[in-house]
Amino acid sequence: MKQILIVIPTYNEAANVKPLVKAIEAAFRDQIDYKADILFVDDNSPDGTAKVIQSLQRKHQNIHLLTGPKQGLGKAYIRGLTCDLKLNSYFAIVTMDADLSHDPKDIPRLLSEIDKGADYVIGSRYVTGGHTDVGYSWLRRLQSRTANIVARSFIDLKIDVKDLTGGFKAMRASKLKTVPIEHINASGYVFQVSLLYEFAKRKYAIQEIPITFHSRQHGKSKLGLKDSVEFLRLTFRLNPHARLPRMIRFACVGASGTLVNLVILTSLVKLAHLNVDVSYLIALEGSIMSNFVLNHWFTFSFVRHTGTESLMTTLNKLSRYNLVSIGGIAISLTVFALIYHVAGLNYILADLIGIIAAMSWNYWLSNRLVWKIVDNDPTTEPSSNDATD
């Protein structure tokens, strides 16, 4: 019989703990393949959740309790997954919410996929057959959908996962031990996405099965503005190779370059009284230099695998970036002339299209000529698809 550990974070869940334990017992009552331990990770709930769990411990030897300060869902999971149990004797680890939104009857289905070879199995609301309970508010549905779209866009997993934020999952313990969980810097529910990314970048086998996500039975949701802000910040930074965050960083650098150009040009003309054409050329090169430095240390910082590179290498990149940028300027002027002078369209529209064309050119060649990024799976972690323990 395979030993399973179910990790359940709690905060003010006193009313839900007993029915949850009862439901887990029912799910495992007729099981001949799995035997479960339950680890509650309580954030010093003021409603007496820990006392309810302690009363259950007197009747159930398989129930464990880990208490600590309130630091958020992610920190609770990190404490639970790195506690003294050490995952040593477990075949798989299951994580789920304490509010009865996850049906314990689905746990054997999650574990069955681990037996079939998966390393990370998500109980998914968004695959075919998955549902969200009708009692779930439209606002929470919108939040969930939006969070998944944002995470999918920012992280660029290279695999098709529908429910990136799902907290109901099973993980092969031997694979989980290879993940540096204690280094995941997430306090809120973005932890779910961070953990998924750690499995994905190691190319472990990830699977989704459909579930019905139920409405909370008692208490209220802990999701707040702080969690949403952290979610945006960390998903944006999680995968430096991802295309969309890289494009956003590149666009921000381009905008700053425009400001640098205007400041230099105005200063040289108004303060130094230089010729406008000469000032324009100096300002142009100044903005190119500024963009290069920011792109080198911000947009494409992950390219420097060793953290340092020779001066000649940097200068070589700078020369190539100058050529790319000059080409971009030529494209912008050409597009502007064709749209404004030839087609007779509005000059602002012509300028905007020219800028977009130039930026697209600069981004494309910066990736392929200057910093030489190839947009495929950039994973450098050791790969393993071995499903055996």
Gross morphology: elongated
Average pLDDT, to the nearest integer? 86
* Total tally of structural domains: 2
Work out the oligomeric state of the chains in this entry: single chain
Sequence of secondary-structure elements:
EHEHEHEHEEHEHHEEHHHHH
Give a verbal description of the structure.
It is a single chain. This protein folds into two domains: 237 residues, Spore Coat Polysaccharide Biosynthesis Protein SpsA, Chain A, CATH 3.90.550.10; 128 residues. With 389 residues, it is of the alpha/beta class. The protein has a seven-stranded mixed beta sheet.
Characterize this entry briefly.
With 389 residues, this protein is an alpha/beta fold. It has helices at 14-28, 49-57, 73-81, 107-115, 138-155, 173-176, 190-201, 225-238, 243-271, 276-299, 311-342, 347-370, and strands at residues 2-10, 34-42, 63-67, 92-95, 120-124, 131-132, 169-172, 206-210, 212-213. The protein has twelve helices and nine strands.
Secondary-structure blueprint:
Layout: E1 2-10, H1 14-28, E2 34-42, H2 49-57, E3 63-67, H3 73-81, E4 92-95, H4 107-115, E5 120-124, E6 131-132, H5 138-155, E7 169-172, H6 173-176, H7 190-201, E8 206-210, E9 212-213, H8 225-238, H9 243-271, H10 276-299, H11 311-342, H12 347-370
Parallel strand pairs: 1-2, 1-4, 2-3, 5-8, 6-9
Antiparallel strand pairs: 4-7, 5-7
Helix pairs in contact: 1-2, 5-8, 7-8, 9-10, 10-11, 11-12
